[in-house]
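Thread: "does anyone have the structure for this chain?"

Original post by V.I.:
We have the sequence but no experimental structure in hand. Need at least a predicted one for the grant figures.
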Amino acid sequence: MTIKEVEEKLNITRANIRFYEKEGLVITKRNPINGYRIYSDENIEELQKIIFLRNLEISIEEISLLQNNKITMEDLLKSHYIVLQNKTSTYETATKICSELIKNSEFNYEKLSIENYCGSHENNEYELIKDTISKLSEFKEIIIPWILVFITIITALIAFPLLPEKIPVDWEGSFVTEYKNHLFIFIYPAVAILFVLRAKLLIWNILYRQIPHILFYFDEISTFITCGFVLMLFSLEIFPVMYTSGLAVNMDYLITIEGVIFIFIIFLKVWFSKRNVMSANLRANMPRKG
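Reply from O.Q.:
Generated one for you, C-alpha cells below.
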C-alpha cells in the first residue's frame, strides 16, 4: 500500500504514520523504482496494534519495549491499569468541580474563588492527536524549501525591471565571461521549482545506489540538500543583480562556502540522529524498576 491508502484504511494522519516510523515502531521498505515507501500487510497490522494501544494511552516508549520483548504484555497492562484508575479518579473529581462551578454560576474569571473548591485536575492527553500535532515533521520538510523558492521568485520579479538588457551569467573569479538576456533571471526560480518537485526522488536514487545504509536519515538529508541547492541558486541569481549594481563578488568562493556549510550541517544531523537512536536503545535496554 501507499501511505495515502494506509491513511484511508486506518483513518489516521500521514504525520502519525511518519512519527511511528521515525520512532522505530514501524519498519517499511521503499519501492526500488520510484523511492516511495510501501506498506506491507505486516506494517498495517503493526500500525493497528499501535493505534489500539495509543488509544489506551500507552506510551510510545512502552510500545517500543513491548516490540523488543523488554516487557511483557501482562506486566504492562497491570501497571497501566493502575495508572488509568488514578486518572479516572482525577477525571471524576474534575467533572464534579465543573458541575459545582456551573451550579454556582462561577463564570467570571477575575472573581473566581478557587479556595471554595477542593481537588485538582490534570488535562487529559489525547495521545493520537498529540502525536499528530507535536510531530508534524513533514511540514517543515515541505515548507522551508518552498519558502526559499518563493524568495527566488520575488527577487526575480523585483530585479527584472531594474536590470540592463544583458546580464552576467558566467564568470571566472570576479570577472564576467558570459552575458545573456535579462529574462535569464527567471531561469533560477524555474530550476528551483523543478528541483524541489523532484528532489526527493532524485536524492533517494543517489543515496540508494551509493550509500544505502544512510537511508534511515533520508527525510532529514533530502530536506537539507534541497534547501542547500535552492539557496545556491538564489546566490547565483543575486550575482547579476549585485554585478550590475557595481558590487562584484567572487561567486566561486561563495558557492564553495555554502556547500561546505550544508555538508557540515548534514554531518551534524546524521551524527545527532545516531546519538538519539543509541540513547533510545540504551533506555529501552535499561531494567525497569519494581
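V.I.: this helps a lot. The radius of gyration is 27 Å.
O.Q.: and The first strand starts at residue 29 and ends at 30.
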